[in-house]
Structure formats: C-alpha cells, structure tokens
Amino acid sequence: MESFRDLTRHFSELSLDVVAQLVSLGEGRGAETAARVRRPHELATLREIAVVQSIETSNAIEGIHAPSARIRKLATEKVTPRDRPEQEIAGYRFVLGEIHEQGLDIPFEPRYVLQLHGHLYRFTGARHAGSFKRTDNKVVERASDGAVVVRFTPVDAQRTPAAMEELHQRFTAAERADEIPYPLLCAAYVLDFLTIHPFTDGNGRMARLITLWLLYRGGFGVGRYISLERIVADTKVDYYDALAASTESWHENRHDLLPWTRYLLGVIVAAYREFEERIDAMPAKSTDKRELVRAFIETSGREGFAVGEVLDSVPVSRDYLGKLLREFRAEELVEMRGAGRGTRWHRVRRASE
Q1: Are residues 245 and 124 in the same domain?
Q2: Each residue of 204-220: pLDDT tens digit?
Q3: Which of 15, 18, 52, 261 is the most exposed place for a label (fewest CB within 10 A)?
Q4: At which of 260, 281, 302 does a domain end?
Q5: Do both 63 and 92 map to the same domain?
C-alpha cells in the first residue's frame, strides 16, 4: 500500500521509455481487439498453447515441476493429480481458468484474493489455503555458497489483513480517479502485493495470476494468448533485480517504483509484440460476418459497447448490424441500455451458456 500513498511522487513525471511503453501497450490492445473479432480461430490456438505454458512456467519458477506430458493433460483436466507437485499445478490451472472466464465479473476485493488463493491449493488440503499468513515471513534467496540471504522483510502477519484492505481501497480510488494510466496502477499494486507478501506460501504465483486479472479488467487481454509467466521465467534475473531495486526503502515510503514499473510494462509489451508476430504468421480462416459480430459481443467488457464501436471493428453495414442485435436480444444474449447517443449494448450471457 506504500506505493499508493504517494502516487504523484512516483508517476507525476514519466521517463520517455515508460511513455513509449504505454504507447506500445495502447497499440497492442488495439491489435488484440481487432484480432479477437477477425481471427477468433487463430486466437483459440494461441490460447491453448498459452495456458499450458503459463501453468508450466509459473510453477517452475517456484520449483514445482512435472513432466510436460502430464502438465498438458492436467491443463485439459484429462487426468487427476497424483502427487503434491501435480496438485499445485492443477490448482494453478483452476485459478487461471477462473480468471480467464470470470475475471471481469469477480469484484477486485481482498476476500476474492483469499478465495483464489484457496482455489490455488484446492487439491492439496493445505491448512493455509485461502488465509492470510499467521506468522511473519521473509523473502530470502540462497547464495552460491549455500548461505541464505534475506532479500526483503515483508509486512508482519498481524498487520497483513489491514495492509491488504488499504491496498485495495487505494487502488480502487486511484482507478476511479482515472488520473494515472491504468498499467502504472497495475505495476504499483503488484509491487505492493509482493512486498506485503500476504500468504504463507504461493505469493509469487498469486502475484502473476493477479497481474493477469488486473490486466483483463483494464482491457489488456494478451495474457490469454501469450504466456506472461513464460516471459517472466525467461527474464527471471531481470525480474528479481527490478523487484530488489523497487522494494528498497519500501517500508519508509522512499522506494523507487520505476525499475519495477519499467520491467513489468516491458513484459507486457514483449507479449503484445509476440502476439502480433504470431497472428501475422498464421494463415487466416474465413469467418462469416454474423460470427464476427458475435465474437465482438463475447469479448465485450462490463462497460458494454456502442453500435459505432462494432462498425469500427467489424466489416458490416449498420442495417445488418441492427438486424443481428435485434436477433441477439430476442435470444437474450444482449440487452440495450440508455437512449439516443447514450445507448449502449451489454452482453447478458455467453452464447455457450
């Protein structure tokens, strides 16, 4: 929560490279929106690959391993986990699925963070599942000579529930104020989460899952198609260096958010670049206009959409779009709210429900 106590100090003047990263993220989000509408078949393929990579690499970062063939089967729920590593991998798969499918509908509140942590350990029977830590912990690393070095001392256990409540309240207030670019708020949240270190175990994996959750809420869905966890694993040294640089003096609120912010935005930018490269390299499959409109509706967020937004993304006439929306409303897929220029359409349920 320390980062949110003085966001102006951290983000009032942005370096040119961070500004460039924010511009790239905006461009990437635009490319993602277009691809969701025009290339749904190709995105389905990318999503299948990303799910397996995310499950495998995020757990591997924490030393949790299983054969790749077993991970693929666990990812598709074709087998039952048979030991503790597989139980933890299956738990990650479950939470990842929850965020992919329901992330926009889950309130971003501490109680739901606890719930997701409980799901992370749902197959293990761990007593600490779904609860904040009850004893103090430290972030440590083992040096090459075997010595244990304390990287950081998190918030103590007694203060953790209040710290998490404050973090969420301050994040929500900053999000509503809409004065600071949303990706910067995400970076600040994840850093504070990691430095609070609210759980006995699973903090790193929860931080990566929450990163996806936050990005989806902000309309940055690239993590569905390109594994952010894999990019973090590939840049693990940079990850820990950035984290160490930005957690220094965090308790005194004298820390520097820039190293961590630059790193995390860089991961997302890299994901969008890979996303565009992969989409461009895949042969396009023909899709009829009705399916394109349905795909647009399926990926619309809580704010809904205006007719003009659909016309900007899908090559259909206004008359044909009006016909489809009337049909979808009759099928109770969408509903219309507002009137005149303020009219917006909202998805009521998914077509598969």
Answers
A1: yes
A2: 999 999 999 999 999 99
A3: 15
A4: 281
A5: yes
Would residue 353 count as lying in a domain? Answer: no
101 and 15 fall within a common domain: yes
Q: What angle do CA 29, 34, 39 make, to 5 degrees?
A: 120
What is the number of H-type helices and E-type strands within the chain? Answer: 15, 4
Distance CA 313, CA 28 (A): 15
Q: What's the total number of domains in the chain? A: 2
Q: What is the largest CA-CA distance in the chain?
A: 72
The pLDDT of residue 63: 85
- List the structure tokens of 313: 């993304």
Rounded Cα distance between 332 and 351, Å, is: 9
Distance CA(70)–CA(82), nearest Å, equals: 10
User: What is the percentage of the chain residues whose pLDDT exceeds 90?
Assistant: 51
Given a cut of 70, whether residue 352 has pLDDT beyond it is no
The angle subtended at Cα 240 by Cα 155 and Cα 230, nearest 5°, is: 115
Task: Tell me how far apart the alpha carbons of residues 149 and 143 are, in angstroms, rounded to a whole number.
Answer: 7
CATH of the domain at 321: 1.10.10.10
Whether 239 has a pLDDT exceeding 90, the answer reads yes
Q: Is the pLDDT of residue 286 over 60?
A: no
For residue 333, what are the domain limits? 289-347
pLDDT tens-digit profile of 302-340?
678 888 888 877 778 888 898 999 999 998 888 989 888
Q: Nearest Cα to 74, choosing from 64, 60, 88?
A: 88
3-state helix, strand, coil in the chain (%, to 5): 65, 5, 30
Report the predicted TM-score, pTM, of the whole model to 2 decimal places: 0.80
Q: Do residues 58 and 159 both lie within one domain?
A: yes
Residue 352 is assigned to a structural domain of this protein: no
What is the rounded end-to-end Cα distance, in angstroms, of the chain? Answer: 39
Q: What angle do CA 147, 190, 115 make, to 5 degrees?
A: 100
Q: For residues 47 and 279, what is the distance between their CA atoms, to the nearest angstrom?
A: 12
Q: Assess whether 230 and 297 both reside in one domain.
A: no
210 assigned to some structural domain: yes
Q: What contacts 12, CB < 8 A, 6 or more positions away?
A: none
Do 269 and 327 lie in a common domain?
A: no
List the structure tokens of 50. Answer: 């990303």
Contact 251, 8 (CB under 8 A): no
